[in-house]
């Protein structure tokens, strides 16, 4: 498996709608953590998006999986970028 950084960008205008769907989103993320797909996640401090570190076989598979996130399904993620990541030092390096 490879590591990927999934970057969400949010539109400030959807903030209240994200609040409405946050429980479903976090439940989905919790299941991905349980399945050891998501390794770490959290919002950006300024509220403009989130970073998710995920395990997956390839970019296409990770992208398809994250299209199932309730935030994405409800069109609350303005942009999603998936990039393969090769950490060389620290907790996630081999």
In short:
With 94 residues, this protein is an alpha+beta fold. It has helices spanning 15-34, 59-66, 70-73, and strands at 2-9, 38-43, 49-56, 79-85.
Explained architecture:
By secondary structure, this protein is an alpha+beta fold. The chain contains 3 helices and 4 strands, in the order βαββααβ. The chain has helices at residues 15-34, 59-66, 70-73; strands spanning 2-9, 38-43, 49-56, 79-85. It has a 4-stranded antiparallel β-sheet with strand order 2-3-1-4. Strand 2 and strand 3 (49-56) form a beta hairpin. The protein is globular and about 40 Å long.
From N to C, what is the helix and strand string? Answer: EHEEHHE
Mean pLDDT level: 95
> Mind describing the biggest β-sheet?
4 strands, antiparallel
What is the CA-atom radius of gyration, in angstroms?
13 Å
Number of strands: 4
Widest sheet: strand ordering: 2-3-1-4
* Weakly predicted, low-confidence segments: none
- Our measurement of the CA-to-CA distance between the termini, rounded to an integer number of angstroms, reads 12 Å
**Helix content, binned percent:** 25-40%
Strand content: 25-35%
Please state the overall shape, judged from the principal axes of the Cα atoms.
Answer: globular
Coarse structural class: alpha+beta
The helix tally amounts to 3
How would you classify the quaternary structure?
A: single chain
């Amino acid at each position: 498996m490879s590591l990927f950084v999934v970057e969400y960008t949010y539109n400030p205008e959807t903030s209240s709608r994200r609040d409405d769907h946050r429980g479903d989103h976090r439940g989905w993320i919790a299941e991905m953590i349980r399945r050891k797909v998501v390794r770490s996640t959290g919002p950006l401090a300024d509220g403009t998006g989130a970073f998710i570190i995920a395990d997956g076989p390839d970019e296409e598979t990770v992208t398809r999986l994250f299209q199932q996130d309730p935030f994405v399904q409800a069109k609350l993620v303005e942009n999603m970028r998936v990039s393969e990541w090769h950490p060389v030092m620290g907790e996630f390096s081999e």
